[in-house]
Amino acid sequence: MKIAVYGAGGIGGYFGGQLASAGADVHLIARGSHLAAIQEDGLHIESIHGDFHVNLPATDDPAEIGECDYVLVCVKSFDTEAIIEKLGPLLGSETAVISLQNGVDNERKLAAEIGEEHVMGGLAYIFSTISEPGHVQHADGPARIIFGEIDGTRSNRAERLRRLCKRADGMEGVHSADIWIDLWEKFMFICAQAGSTAAIRLPIDEIRDVDESWKLFCGLLEEARDVAVAEGVEVTDTALEEWIKFAKNLDEGTYSSLYHDMVNGNRMELEALHGTLVRKADEHDISVPWTRSVYAVLYPWAVRNAPDQ
């Protein structure tokens, strides 16, 4: 089974390494000093499930890899359009391209350009990052990927990937019965946790200790749920309650990648998160005052951190 991982950062590097350890022929697509370090000394994974090292072929040119069975797209959501035009050499007639990115629009963007038959929906639950070039650190989280066909059918290619994931010691693969529900449920939480920690600039424990701030977090969750339902995705109140319970138990000092990108001057995924939610709410004439306020607060930071500024 041949797999290309487009974006071998914290998520792509970890899962790529795990799938290689399970026997897959994994090829990494990376850039800069991280790519150079992998080419020189392989990929080092430091994980709560146990550290390991793998020597994998790595490049910045998909044409050097050729056709694959699966392509895992792990770049930031704002890079989706930029990498779509480079996917061609990786695609055979049966290739499945699976987005493991934040947001709920990446699948549609991919399908519009490479064909819906190539695209599966996916998401990842893991806290991992590049600790230094060539090194990925997995600090927490279940190390789980969820994937499924975007038309809701069960497929052999999804089941094959699930069986491969099962052979890996440090990850779980779940064949989703309804990938849009899974995508929107994760999207709800990201919008709430990322939006509140970035806008308030404090960790989640300090937010949940203040009633007015906790109302913001819960309001963001509820608004995302309302938009999901308007989109035809049956997200239930139970999912909302489970996320609230989850947030109440998050470790002290927990921020979000959106917060870290903001304060470190990195490009932000604001448009893929709160920008998308505001636009979809407008399409359905739904009031989302919490989300709109967070978007307004964070937008100047997104402009400041944009690469052309």
Automatic annotation (TrEMBL):
Taxonomically, which superkingdom? Archaea
Q: Entry's Gene3D superfamilies?
A: N-(1-d-carboxylethyl)-l-norvaline Dehydrogenase, domain 2, NAD(P)-binding Rossmann-like Domain
Q: Residues in domain Ketopantoate reductase C-terminal?
A: 179-298
Q: What class of enzyme is it?
A: oxidoreductase
Reaction equations catalysed = (R)-pantoate + NADP(+) = 2-dehydropantoate + NADPH + H(+); (R)-pantoate + NAD(+) = 2-dehydropantoate + NADH + H(+)
Q: Which E.C. number(s) belong to this protein?
A: 1.1.1.169
The record's keywords, sorted A to Z, are: Coenzyme A biosynthesis, NADP, Oxidoreductase
Keyword Oxidoreductase found: yes
Specify the protein name.
Answer: 2-dehydropantoate 2-reductase
